[in-house]
């Protein structure tokens, strides 16, 4: 009995424990379902599902004619998964030699034996043989297509183990062309490329698109996509840049920088009516490469003392306030004049003596302009500064592109104001302007007083469809009176015809503008060292302006030359000449030219009946119209067309030169020849000479041009 009781007790204890354990399990299950279910379901999903960002394709930046200026191209990093389910030992061993040979020929950096040893080691001797890096070099899409034809790799990811990790690179096909204005991308969060400067930065939200999300789930040890929110590609951006003009501007600027050993320079070409920037070049000397490259956007970001180009604003203020007129006089004396302890000098030794206001401007007399401003505004300097403010010279242009330099025109209550401030400001010192701000002011003169905001982008497109157009924007509808405008336009033309820029004159079209030569502060020694900035700003053709342009060259070698007309002027002229040559709308048709135009159109040789109908419809007189010939040769004489015989004999190759392809084919094929055609246009040559004998079925080739 004691044994039986002991057994019953033990069984009962075990049963009780089982019951208690079962209750605990049931309780825990209930607790998990009711209270902790969401938490653990979320954790399970995180272990079996992932959200993968699918990057959107960044939009292209294009020139005005659609040519690419910046685009994103895919590049691929090659890896190999040696644990891929289909990559068996027998498959690997059978084709590894062939794969190694293909890789060696493709990358051309190691022998086939070295590649075989690398692959063999990665497969059998390395513990971490998943996602093995095949090569550090990233390849383009064309290269990837070739790689996918290699042994083993052509079997795909599961059997061949090839893994291609895509990375998009921003490429500028034209290399240095407007590089700083187009901008570039910098590394952002999650290794994303973000536009920071230039057009890339200004239109980042439009270009980047919207990333998608791919939900992948782990199934049978592999991650497979189960759902995807598709990315939305970025918009393409059509700029105002003309690639041909841009190339001309950069080439002309670089040649002059090299000639004068200058530190840096910039050029901007603008469309007068719209403010559209057609070319913008910024080149600085790079010590490492010992060459010039786009290292900073000087045209937009560098605010310096403009020098004599600022004299236009001074003259306009005098005209607007009615103090002087173009034919009034000013005595420049011997070209030296003192303001307190500071001496103002003209570049012309000995001075100009007594000259008109117009001559003072055309000859760029520092003494003449400063005396005029000082005489009339000395006791009321605020009036002068207010005029400059009315011209909008103290305000930034408000460009979308970041980094615009801030213009500076101090007011008389500024602590640094002194008795010499007014005369020195009148000739472009103690003020600061960027090249683009100066050009915008001159462009307003060319545009009959209407100041346009510089425009770099004209359209946004999505997959070819225009979704937004950027209209021209007016900063100031009228910067001065019509009378002032008329006077300064005449004076700006005079600078080129009679003044400091006479070297820019040409017989084909007129240029209006102003030279500028400024002594600027050295980076380290200030004004103790003479460092110069040469510039020229103007517009063309002067009688009907289409383009305005500014050229600024900083720190030219003073022993070779530093004056604006000498250093910057030739760049302006080169650009203007080539733009004029390329722009047919700028070439007026002369009355005498009309007499040189033919009065009848060019006619091809051909079938007489067809030609009769065409010439009758056009009311063109025909000589020898009654000629008895099915096929004729046509020639143009003054205002009439003359017919001549064209005889076609059997078994002799016809003469089809000068005919259209339709008539030539008809004649030759009817004669029994088989015809090949090369080119476009009218027949310029034939492989078998006219009059030669032939056999039916012979081949003949006709060349069109």
TrEMBL record:
Domain PASTA: 647-705
A single cellular component GO annotation: plasma membrane
GO molecular function, one term: carboxypeptidase activity
Descriptive protein name: PASTA domain-containing protein
Alphabetical list of Pfam families matching this protein: PASTA (PF03793), PBP_dimer (PF03717), Transpeptidase (PF00905)
Coiled coil start-end: none
Main location, first listed in the record: membrane
Lineage of the organism: Bacteria, Pseudomonadati, Bacteroidota, Bacteroidia, Marinilabiliales
Transmembrane segments: 12-35
Keywords on record: Carboxypeptidase, Hydrolase, Membrane, Protease, Transmembrane, Transmembrane helix
Compartments, record wording: Membrane
Biological process per Gene Ontology, one example term: cell wall organization
SMART domains registered for this protein in UniProt: PASTA
């Amino acid at each position: 009995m004691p044994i039986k009781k002991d057994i019953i007790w033990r069984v009962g204890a075990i049963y009780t424990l089982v019951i208690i354990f079962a209750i605990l399990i049931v309780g825990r299950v209930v607790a998990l379902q009711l209270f902790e279910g969401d938490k653990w379901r979320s954790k399970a999903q995180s272990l079996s599902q992932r959200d993968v960002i699918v990057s959107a394709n960044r939009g292209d930046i294009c020139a005005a004619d659609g040519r690419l200026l910046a685009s994103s191209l895919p590049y691929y990093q090659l890896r190999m998964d040696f644990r891929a389910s289909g990559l068996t030992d027998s498959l690997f061993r059978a084709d590894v030699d062939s794969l190694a040979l293909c890789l060696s020929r493709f990358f051309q950096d190691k022998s086939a034996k070295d590649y075989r040893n690398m692959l063999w080691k990665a497969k059998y001797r390395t513990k971490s043989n998943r996602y093995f890096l095949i090569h550090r070099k990233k390849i383009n899409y064309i290269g990837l297509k070739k790689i996918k034809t290699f042994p083993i790799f052509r079997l795909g990811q599961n059997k061949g183990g090839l893994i291609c990790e895509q990375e998009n690179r921003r490429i500028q096909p034209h290399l240095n062309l407007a590089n700083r204005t187009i901008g570039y991308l910098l590394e952002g969060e999650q290794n994303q490329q973000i536009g920071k400067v230039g057009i890339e930065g200004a239109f980042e939200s439009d270009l980047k698109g919207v990333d998608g999300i791919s939900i992948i789930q782990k199934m049978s040890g592999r991650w497979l996509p189960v759902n995807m929110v598709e990315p939305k590609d970025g918009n393409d951006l059509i700029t105002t840049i003309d690639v041909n003009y841009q190339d001309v501007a950069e080439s002309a600027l670089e040649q002059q920088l090299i000639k004068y050993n200058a530190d840096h320079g910039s050029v901007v070409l603008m469309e007068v009516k719209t403010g559209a920037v057609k070319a913008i070049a910024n080149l600085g000397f790079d010590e490492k490469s010992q060459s010039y490259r786009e290292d900073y956007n000087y045209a937009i970001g560098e605010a310096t003392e403009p020098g004599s180009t600022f004299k236009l604003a001074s003259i306009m203020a005098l005209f607007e306030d009615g103090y002087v007129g173009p034919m009034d006089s000013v005595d420049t004396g011997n070209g030296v004049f003192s303001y307190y302890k500071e001496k103002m000098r003209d570049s012309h030794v000995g001075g100009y003596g007594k000259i008109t206001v117009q001559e003072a401007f055309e000859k760029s007399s520092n003494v003449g302009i400063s005396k005029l401003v000082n005489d009339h505004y000395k006791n009321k300097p605020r009036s002068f500064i207010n005029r400059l403010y009315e011209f909008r010279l103290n305000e930034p242009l408000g460009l979308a592109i970041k980094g615009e330099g801030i213009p500076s025109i101090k007011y008389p209550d500024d602590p640094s104001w002194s008795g010499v401030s007014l005369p020195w400001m009148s000739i472009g010192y103690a003020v600061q302007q960027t090249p683009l701000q100066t050009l915008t002011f001159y462009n307003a003169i060319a545009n009959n007083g209407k100041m346009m905001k510089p425009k770099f982008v004209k359209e946004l497109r999505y997959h070819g469809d225009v979704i937004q157009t950027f209209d021209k924007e007016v900063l100031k509808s009228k910067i001065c009176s019509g009378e002032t405008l008329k006077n300064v336009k005449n004076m700006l033309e005079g600078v080129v015809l009679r003044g400091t820029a006479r070297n820019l004159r040409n017989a084909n079209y007129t240029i209006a503008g102003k030279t500028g030569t400024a002594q600027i502060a050295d980076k380290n020694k200030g004004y103790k060292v003479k460092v110069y900035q040469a510039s020229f700003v103007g517009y063309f053709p002067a009688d009907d302006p289409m383009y305005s342009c500014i050229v600024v060259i900083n720190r030219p070698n003073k022993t070779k030359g530093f004056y604006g007309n000498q250093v910057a002027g030739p760049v302006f002229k080169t650009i203007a000449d080539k733009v004029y040559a390329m722009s047919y709308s700028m070439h007026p048709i002369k009355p005498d030219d009309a007499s040189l135009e033919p009065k009848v159109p060019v006619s091809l040789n051909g079938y007489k009946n067809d030609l009769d109908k065409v010439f009758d419809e056009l009311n063109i007189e025909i000589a020898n119209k009654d000629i008895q010939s099915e096929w004729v040769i046509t020639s143009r004489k003054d205002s009439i067309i003359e017919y001549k015989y064209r005889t076609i004999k059997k078994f002799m190759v016809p003469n089809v030169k000068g005919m259209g392809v339709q008539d030539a084919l008809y004649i030759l094929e009817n004669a029994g020849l088989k015809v090949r055609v090369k080119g476009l246009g009218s027949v310029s040559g034939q492989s078998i000479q006219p009059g030669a004998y032939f056999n039916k079925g012979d081949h003949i080739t006709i060349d069109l041009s």
